[in-house]
Design a protein that fits this description.
This protein has about 190 residues and is of the alpha+beta class. It has two domains: about 1-90, Ribosomal Protein S8, Chain: A, domain 1, CATH 3.30.1370; about 105-185, no CATH class. Helices cover about 35% and strands about 20% of the residues. Helix 5 packs across helix 6. The longest helix is centred in the N-terminal third of the chain and has 21 residues, at about 50-70. The protein starts with a strand and ends in a 5-residue tail after the last strand.
Length: about 190
């Protein structure tokens, strides 16, 4: 029977533990045979030696992800959680890039997910739809991901030289109010 205390060198343990200890609860579900206690800036693990050591490594990996990104995604969406062979709800695959301060940029709607998948298999993609539905936002996030992964050396942003006759871009309101169709273009044909 092991008792391991993990000191967390974290400025905001509440963000690490999650809202209402959601991340701690997810860790408890991953290691149901262990007793895991989170208090202050430390976590205590009680249980079988090998399993307690695995849990310690898992928590240290989560702490590393938190330090690296400035935020900890819910444990179920965490790449660390996926790396340990557990099935998730699929949301982690929609993460495109981590922005400043760990802001998660991901495909949120089914059509944005389809756009990301189409960009992975095609060199050029034309996205047509109502203004404000995230076509350009998703295309830029895909381009930034390719730049961070060193798939491309630079990003070139293009826009029409002549105004199309209406204001393009984000428009407030629901789909019925968005009558203007805009076009998003994502090209991934670049060489390093």
């Amino acid at each position: 029977m092991a008792e391991i205390i993990i000191p967390l060198d974290i400025t905001n343990p509440v963000a690490f533990f999650g809202a209402n200890d959601a991340n701690v609860d997810a860790i408890r579900k991953k290691f149901p045979a262990l007793k895991i206690i989170a208090r202050g800036n430390e976590m205590k693990i009680l249980g079988e030696d090998d399993l307690a050591y695995q849990c310690k490594l898992f928590i240290e990996n989560l702490a590393y992800e938190y330090d690296k990104n400035g935020i900890l995604t819910p444990v179920d969406d965490s790449p660390v959680f996926q790396a340990n062979g557990n099935k998730t709800n699929g949301n982690a695959s929609n993460v495109l890039v981590y922005g400043p301060n760990g802001i998660v940029v991901k495909a949120r709607t089914p059509n944005q997910i389809r756009m990301v998948e189409a960009c992975e298999h095609n060199d050029i993609l034309f996205a047509i739809g109502p203004a404000g539905t995230g076509k350009t936002y998703t295309a830029v996030a895909i381009a930034v991901r390719a730049l961070k992964n060193k798939e491309v050396r630079k990003i070139v942003l293009c826009r029409p030289a002549v105004e199309a006759g209406e204001h393009l871009g984000f428009l407030p309101g629901d789909m019925k109010e968005k009558k203007i169709l805009t076009y998003g273009l994502c090209t991934m044909h670049c060489s390093i």
